[in-house]
Amino acid sequence: MIEHEAAQVVINISLIVMVMLLPFAFYRVMRGPTAADRLLSLEMITMIAVGITVLLALFEGTDTVIDTGIVLAALSFVGTLAIARYISEGRVF
Amino acid sequence: MDVLETIRLIAGLFFLVFGVVFSFLGVFGILRLPDTYSRLHASGKVGTLGVMGLCIGCAFLMPGAALKVLALSIFLVFSGPVGSHAIAAGIHRAEQTNNPHGEVPVADTSATVKQSSAPVGQHNK
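YS: structure for the whole thing
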């Protein structure tokens, strides 16, 4: 936990802003005209979730939450490559 | 609180605000930009600059977690542009081969300011 008061205020406001960005990104997932729009919006939602885990680690004062972010980024990378291949080739494997 | 602690605090908070601003700009761009390629350009910034800014800020504010955050940001530097390039090449190749699984990227006319501009990408149909 960071003891300074201004740091606490900035971390709280950053966490609130990052969480409030999620429904706006999900709007593009619902009404993307193509499949690629949905794919890139979902990748961006995952990246925002990774940022939220980093901010949560700052908020809680523990660094164990960052492991969740690393695993989330790795799985999102594999999924993005698979769906991009599906869009281009019509099949994954 | 000595001077070094103050500098560390200010640098950490600056990078946190940097990351949040870039994430906000990425979401704003993905809502307002008219084309799929343009939206891809906007969404690539969130993965690299936004989360990287948050990671650098976290490393400044909490030095015990600096190693994990460094691992996360190195992974993001390598995986983000590769993923964006995979999506862009996938759209382009589907557009070239008239693949029925990948649709041609059309312009979202509700996001553009002027309705009179011609939609991008419909010349292939």
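YS: worth flagging: Chain A touches chain B through 51 residues (CB under 8 Å).
IM: good catch. Also Helices of chain A lie at 5-30, 35-60, 65-89.
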